[in-house]
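Just curious. Protein, please.
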Amino acid sequence: MGVLDSIMDFLVKLAEGFIGMFQAGADTFTGLVTGIIPLLIVLITAINALIRMIGEERINRLARRSTKNIILRYTLFPVLAVFFLTNPMAYTFGKFLPEKQKPAFYDSAVSFVHPITGLFPHANPAELFVYLGISAGITTLGLSLGPLAIRFFLVGIIVILIRGIVTEIITVRMMKSKGMEV
């Protein structure tokens, strides 16, 4: 009977593991439905209501004025988007830019969701585990996390500027090669 018991134990554990995998998926889904999805719906609704109250044309003019300078377009604009709207809502700021700048804005904004986390964890709590993993080594050495967070932030701004400029150049070249209006 020992072999039969072992086989039965194995089959029970296999079945429990199999259903456990689906239970973990259901728990994740429940977390999304009760967490991030309602938050995104409320944020999208609030931002759209604000845009309608102010007027989309006014917002577009403000965005175009504030993003005429390429340095501000790929530093200040994505930083404000990530800080105020957080990840993933921040990418909606791109709708106020001309088509040729949208890919570069997205590249800049998506590249900034990690560097901002050390100073402003609300901007992308999902990335916090990465920062905390890195910072654990710093705290083990007895060092302060402040300088690390500031360095991440500053290097992040430099990186998003470079990525934004390069992506815009590539986008414009691709649009021209396809005969699109730039």
